[in-house]
């Protein structure tokens, strides 16, 4: 293909081609392992001028041209032609059209060609074209931005990639330029980075290290997410060594800086949700351990006292929230950077009323949301929307710089850097004040890509660095902001998160330190609202997971289900159980109410539920007269009277009058048994007593007979015999009876010892009178 034919093809297809035109093909199934980052099934053709497209008089023009094959088919070899416009581009609007591939620029002339070999699937080739400094195409060029295009012909037509060549003017006064570089950790759902995450991010090849390396030695303005240094500081002595070194480097930088919202939270979403001001962290105490913050033990002062006192124990002093969130020296307070394209005049005015330490707030807005910027004109950095101060960053330049900072290959990075330089060329020529640009909020950028982007911005012709203080002190110009529609999805998410946080704050009154729950909740919700989540398909899931976690926390303390019970006594203690899944002890009050008067119940029972366990609670009750069912309603509340968990009910069957009747019947039965026992005992004792009396009487009679038979008791014996005249028996002294004669006369002779007394039955008895015989013998 000849150069003339190629140029003709370029001119015929410019209105339809883009700077990196892709030919779409069906995606293969299954997808092969890929080494390119281009969309699957496409080819990407890129023109990237060397030196960001700047060609000063006497210098050569060099360009890198790449072709990436993301299809499954081989691309046939082709010839690429480079063409340069003879006249400069008129203005910024025309530049935008040209770079977008929609502009028609006459006067293109071929200045060089190169040949591509066949390109295998999922691979790429890079070629370069150089136009010598003494080439007639470069000679005598006036300052300006010239159109540059590379093209080749394939089966479907002409494929082009557009760029520019910038011939700078040496007569234009330098313009101040500020470049804002964010120092962030990307999208997060946890409140703070963990020690492991910090160790990875601050390693020599970590993303945070790359950000710090890229700004070191540059005058960039740092926009620091305070959650990053806070994550390091809360770890104290246990922080990774690499993280501590990173923090030391950050504090040592002399760059001007400001603090983003914690987690770089979306400011506009919060204000659209009805908040009076953007949220701030409340407490980070839950992330700290006192053991990581020891206070050095003071050295004891020698004294003449021989006995030294005890050495004071080491104590700990936790840093304050303000100390944890500090982003370094030279921080300008009261700077807000809403997500691009979200802050309208209402948001800016609301932020302007939030003075900090007597410093007037200032808000960063993109030029695309201003009336002048929307018309393609340059907007100086310092502006005012009514009484509200703003810093306007150039949208076109910032977008190109962000693309360059995310380019992984040098032969791709030159294309967006050339676009940024071209826009800056128009901006420096048109502006009436200093300019401001950003490199976007991209994450995971390498130190080479990000560093080259920052350097390219400050190396653009006609610019000199300006810091944040100088930009804010510049004379403001009137700025009119366009009306922007709200982002209902993110505003609704912010509103829901605020409602959840309010519920958790009430729930947290069960703790001695409510901040142990409320602090992490605030940090996590701000992270979920981070600007880095905008456009990320994973954000809805992250939001849902956080809300589910909050709901789980709200359900972590509750009464365990209860079952019906019976009450047979007049008083007892009903037992219930409180579940506490939190890692902290909680203070509760169990409120118990009844539905009738059969039962008296203790209405308030204090409870201290131990961490991660079930705690038993006993509620004293007392039955009244009557029986029946009583329904008790149980409700846990915090000491601040906040309901904790759902109310539970328990049925109690009261049998108090049956107990009284049972006790009475039992008392009667026991009393009757006692009376019967007593009666039987009395009767038994009486019988025994009568038996003893009879025995006593018999003993008395025997004694009387004994006395009569004694030597000195003859009279008595006679009396006994006389007494026996009626026929009764008289007991002898030895207990034997003396019988009476029929006529009542007895003749009794007793032995000297009174023994052997025999009765006489009468004269006709035929029985000798033993006593008489004995007497005769004597």
From TrEMBL:
The chain crosses the membrane at residues 660-683. Residues 289-318, 689-778 are annotated as: Disordered. The keyword Membrane applies. Residues 293-309 have a biased composition (Pro residues). Keywords: Membrane, Signal, Transmembrane, Transmembrane helix. Residues 1-22 form the signal peptide. Residues 694-735 have a biased composition (Low complexity). It comes from the Bacteria. InterPro entries: DUF6049. The keyword Transmembrane helix applies. This is DUF6049 family protein. It comes from Microbacterium arthrosphaerae.
């Amino acid at each position: 293909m000849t150069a003339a034919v190629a140029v003709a093809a370029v001119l015929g297809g410019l209105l339809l081609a883009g700077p990196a035109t892709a030919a779409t093909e069906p995606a293969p199934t299954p997808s092969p392992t890929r080494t390119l980052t281009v969309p699957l099934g496409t080819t990407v053709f890129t023109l990237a001028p060397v030196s960001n497209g700047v060609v000063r008089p006497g210098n050569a023009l060099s360009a890198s041209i790449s072709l990436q094959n993301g299809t499954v088919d081989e691309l046939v070899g082709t010839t690429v032609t480079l063409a340069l416009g003879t006249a400069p581009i008129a203005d910024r609007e025309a530049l935008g059209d040209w770079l977008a591939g929609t502009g028609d620029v006459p006067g293109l002339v071929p200045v060089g060609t190169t040949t591509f070999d066949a390109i295998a699937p999922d691979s790429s080739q890079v070629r370069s074209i150089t136009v010598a400094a003494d080439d007639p195409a470069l000679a005598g060029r006036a300052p300006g931005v010239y159109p540059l295009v590379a093209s080749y012909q394939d089966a479907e037509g002409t494929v082009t990639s557009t760029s520019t060549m910038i011939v700078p003017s040496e007569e234009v006064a330098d313009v101040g330029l500020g470049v804002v570089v964010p120092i962030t950790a990307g999208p997060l759902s946890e409140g703070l980075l963990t020690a492991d995450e910090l160790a990875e991010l601050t390693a020599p090849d970590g993303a945070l290290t790359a950000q710090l390396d890229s700004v070191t030695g540059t005058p960039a303005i740092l926009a620091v997410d305070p959650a990053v240094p806070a994550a390091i500081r809360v770890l104290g002595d246990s922080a990774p060594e690499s993280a501590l070194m990173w923090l030391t480097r950050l504090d040592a930088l002399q760059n001007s800086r400001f603090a983003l919202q914690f987690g770089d939270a979306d400011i506009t979403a919060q204000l659209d949700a009805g908040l009076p001001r953007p949220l701030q962290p409340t407490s980070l105490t839950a992330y700290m351990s006192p053991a990581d913050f020891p206070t050095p033990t003071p050295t004891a002062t020698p004294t003449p006292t021989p006995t030294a006192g005890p050495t004071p124990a080491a104590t700990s002093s936790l840093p304050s929230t303000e100390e944890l969130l500090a982003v370094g020296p030279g921080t300008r307070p009261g700077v807000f950077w809403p997500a691009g394209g979200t802050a309208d005049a209402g948001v800016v005015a609301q932020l302007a009323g939030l003075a900090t330490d007597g410093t007037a707030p200032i808000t960063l807005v993109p030029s695309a949301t201003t009336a002048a910027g929307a018309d393609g004109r340059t907007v100086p950095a310092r502006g005012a929307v009514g009484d509200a101060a703003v810093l306007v960053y150039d949208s076109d330049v910032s977008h190109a710089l962000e693309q360059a900072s995310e380019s992984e290959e040098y032969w791709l990075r030159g294309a967006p850097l050339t676009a940024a330089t071209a826009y800056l060329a128009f901006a420096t020529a048109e502006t009436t004040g200093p300019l401001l640009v950003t490199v976007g909020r991209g994450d995971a950028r390498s130190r080479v890509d990000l560093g080259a982007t920052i350097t390219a911005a400050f190396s653009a012709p006609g610019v000199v660095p300006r810091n944040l203080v100088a930009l804010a002190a510049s004379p403001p110009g009137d700025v009119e902001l366009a009306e922007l529609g709200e982002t209902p999805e993110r505003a609704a998410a912010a509103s829901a998160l605020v409602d959840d946080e309010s519920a958790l704050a009430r729930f947290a009154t069960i703790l001695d330190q409510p901040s142990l729950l409320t602090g992490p909740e605030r940090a996590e919700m701000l992270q979920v609202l981070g600007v880095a989540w905008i456009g990320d398909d994973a954000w809805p899931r992250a939001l849902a997971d956080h809300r589910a976690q909050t709901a789980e926390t709200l359900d972590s303390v509750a009464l365990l289900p209860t079952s019906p019970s019976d009450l047979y006594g007049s008083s007892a203690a009903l037992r219930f159980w409180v579940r506490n899944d939190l890692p902290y002890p909680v203070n509760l009050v169990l409120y118990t109410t009844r539905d009738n008067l059969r039962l008296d119940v203790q209405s308030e029972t204090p409870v201290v539920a131990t961490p991660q366990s079930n705690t038993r609670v006993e509620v004293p009750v007392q039955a009244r007269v009557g029986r029946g069912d009583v329904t008790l309603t149980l409700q846990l509340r915090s000491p601040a009277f906040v309901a904790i968990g759902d109310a539970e009910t328990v049925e109690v069957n009261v049998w108090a009058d049956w107990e009284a009747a049972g006790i009475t019947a039992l008392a009667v039965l026991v009393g009757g048994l006692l009376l019967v026992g007593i009666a039987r005992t009395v009767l038994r004792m009486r019988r025994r007593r009568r038996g003893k009396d009879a025995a006593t009487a018999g003993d008395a009679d025997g004694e009387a007979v004994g006395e009569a038979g004694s030597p000195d008791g003859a009279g008595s014996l006679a009396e006994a015999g006389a007494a026996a005249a009626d026929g009764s028996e008289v007991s002898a002294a030895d207990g034997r009876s003396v019988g009476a004669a029929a006529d009542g006369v007895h003749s009794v002779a007793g032995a000297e010892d009174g023994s052997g007394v025999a009765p006489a039955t009468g004269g006709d008895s035929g029985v000798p009178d033993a006593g008489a015989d004995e007497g005769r013998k004597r």
